[in-house]
From TrEMBL:
This is alanine--tRNA ligase. It comes from Candidatus Yanofskybacteria bacterium RIFCSPHIGHO2_01_FULL_41_21. Gene3D superfamilies: 3.30.54.20, Bira Bifunctional Protein, Domain 2, Threonyl-trna Synthetase, Chain A, domain 2. GO terms for cellular component: cytoplasm. GO terms for biological process: alanyl-tRNA aminoacylation. It is an enzyme of class 6 (ligase). Belongs to the class-II aminoacyl-tRNA synthetase family. The keyword Zinc does not apply.
Length: 567
């Protein structure tokens, strides 16, 4: 059974059982408490907490998805038989639609009948603190199949904490096949607050996660995940004489990089861009040290696109190769000097390791791998502490220069007053572009996410097809016409229903408070744009500057993404 057949079987199995199929969300989450999307439940977090209505948005209380996921905690471990950075998570979810009995029965049927696998054993929560043992799940498993061995484990193994600092959580039951945990079923019964105390959820929910790579391994009867059809085409590209650990690192990092770039990440020294830079540079250095031509890395990236684009349509070869080529050109000029500098050192501590990164771009992973005895005592924690110290020094310098501090206003955050001015202009530009697109396309465009940095704006919307270049140009022209007219941008606070009755657009997944802010571009009686928004915005459109739409692309089924800049 191929990995694509596994995907299809999983989706169809739950679709037949009343689950709405929801496309994967971006690797860049709307939840600011986490760096990447690390699990399938993240895009559904508002439905567990009651801040969004699943029946309204999905027509069902039950959903199924295959979620692109990324976990940076495993970067140092990549190279063994099981650890990855990027992976796909199969999941079925319920927001008060069904509970433990149905979730366990579905899982048992899918594993044993659809996949034809034998379950070694299952585990349930043994109880700890205020949370009692999950005897209910244990009894359900025994009623489903009396021959199944049920083991009880503590909080470390069978209690799922929230993604981020707080959120839904609860006891779990796990399914083991061939000694490997393949499926984790979470019973969201509690909300964990930032101070770690638990509060019962008003609506209990089901959140399951099953890694496609692990499932493919047991279904295809392979010894490890890198022998599955998800990785075999990539491994074949690399010379056979290369150490197997290096092969695994290179194919993992190529796959992760392709997906990150396609979701809008570009290499940088901050946040998601910093992770991408680490992955790409590790790829480049390993290729150099293994006498592999740069063209082989490009072939790895193109092969990822070839094998995944049928399911993830936003994988774009031009974008991926462009970003790789830029980073490769930049890094090639310095990293060889960095390796020479590393050779000169007798010992490497956090400070000298960070200097190698800052001056020559050498990632921590490469320093550890090629440093030999001189890096024996160097730890990731020591390196990151030094990096954080330098960031704080740099931030202090910025604050001194601009006489300000890190700023948060409304929906926006910035390092200083100058950056806040820029992101505010981009924020208003987003509203204007959305309204312009709606005029060109002749319909409302439900907004599905947005992200604004000091360099650019990005927003997602629901639309069934690609927006043509001609339509994008029309929208851009309309937007700049509104800028040139220097229309007023005004804000009024009003009751939510009054705001909606006035025609104000709203973010379809959010649950709004009784009183809201409404920003209007143009005259109140005949506005160009009117939206519910936390602000801030410019006072007149001419403050924005010239708008340029730089890209339109698919994010996932039914969702499109626009990127734009101002000058």
């Amino acid at each position: 059974m191929t990995s694509q057949e596994i995907r299809e079987k999983f989706i169809k199995f739950f679709e037949k059982r009343g689950h709405t199929v929801v496309p994967s969300s971006s690797l860049l989450p709307t939840d600011s408490s986490v760096l990447f999307t690390t699990a399938g439940m993240q895009q559904f977090k508002p439905y567990y907490t009651g801040t969004a209505d699943a029946m309204k948005d999905f027509g069902s209380l039950n959903t199924v998805s295959i979620q692109k996921s990324m976990r940076t905690s495993d970067i140092d471990s990549v190279g063994d038989e099981s650890h990855l950075t990027f992976f796909e998570m199969l999941g079925n979810f319920s927001f008060g639609g069904y509970w433990k009995k149905e979730a366990i029965e579905y899982a048992y049927e899918f594993i044993t009948k659809e996949m034809g696998l034998n379950i070694d054993y299952v585990s349930v929560f043994a109880g700890e603190g205020i949370v009692p043992a999950d005897e209910e799940s244990e009894n359900i498993w025994k009623s489903v199949d009396s021959s199944i061995t049920v083991k009880r484990h503590g909080r470390a193994d069978n209690f799922w904490g929230p993604t981020g600092s707080e959120g839904p959580c609860g006891p779990t039951t796990e399914i083991y096949v061939n000694g490997l945990e393949v499926w984790n079923i979470v019973f969201n019964q509690y909300y964990q607050h930032a101070d770690k105390h638990l509060e019962p959820l008003k609506t209990q929910g089901i959140d399951t996660g099953m890694g496609l790579e692990r499932l493919a391994m047991v279904v295809q009867q392979k010894q490890n995940i890198f022998e599955t059809d998800l990785f075999e085409p990539l491994i074949k590209i690399l010379p056979e004489n290369i150490d197997i650990r290096i092969q695994r690192i290179m194919v993992d990092h190529a796959r992760a990089s392709a997906f990150l770039i396609s979701d809008g990440v570009v290499p940088s020294n901050k946040e998601q861009g910093y992770v991408l830079r680490r992955l790409l540079r590790r790829l480049i250095v390993h290729a150099h040290m293994s006498n592999i031509e740069t063209e082989v890395i490009r072939e790895l990236l193109l092969t990822v696109i070839k094998h995944y684009s049928a399911y993830y349509s936003n994988l774009n070869s031009e974008t991926i190769l462009t970003e790789f080529n830029k980073e490769n050109d930049k890094f090639q000029k310095t990293f060889k000097n960095g390796l020479k500098e590393l050779e000169k050192l007798t010992t490497v501590d956090g400070a000298s390791a960070f200097k190698l990164f800052e001056s020559f771009g050498l990632p921590f992973e490469i320093i550890k791998e090629v440093g030999g005895d001189k890096v024996k005592t160097l730890s990731r924690e020591e390196f990151e502490a030094e990096r954080k110290r330098h960031q704080e020094i740099s931030r202090a310098g910025v604050e001194k220069k601009f006489g300000g501090h890190g700023i948060k206003e409304g929906d926006l955050t910035a390092e200083n007053a100058e950056e806040m001015k820029k992101v505010t202009r981009l924020h208003t530009a987003t509203h204007i572009i959305v309204a312009s697109l709606q005029k060109v396309l002749g319909q409302k465009l439900p907004q599905a996410g947005a992200d604004i940095t000091v360099e650019r704006l990005r927003f997602d919307f629901t639309f069934p097809r690609k927006v043509t270049p001609e339509e994008l140009k029309q929208a851009e022209d309309i937007a700049n016409e509104i800028v040139d007219k220097d229309l007023p941008v005004t804000c009024r606070e009003m009751d939510l229903q009054e705001a909606l009755d006035s025609g104000a657009s709203a973010f379809f997944k959010l649950k709004y408070p009784p009183r809201v802010k409404v920003y209007t571009v143009g005259a109140e009686s005949n506005p160009f744009s009117r939206e519910l928004c936390g602000g801030p915005h410019v006072s007149h459109t001419a403050e924005i500057g010239h708008i340029t739409i730089t890209k339109e692309e698919s994010v996932s089924g039914g969702n499109r993404r626009i990127r734009a800049t101002i000058s």
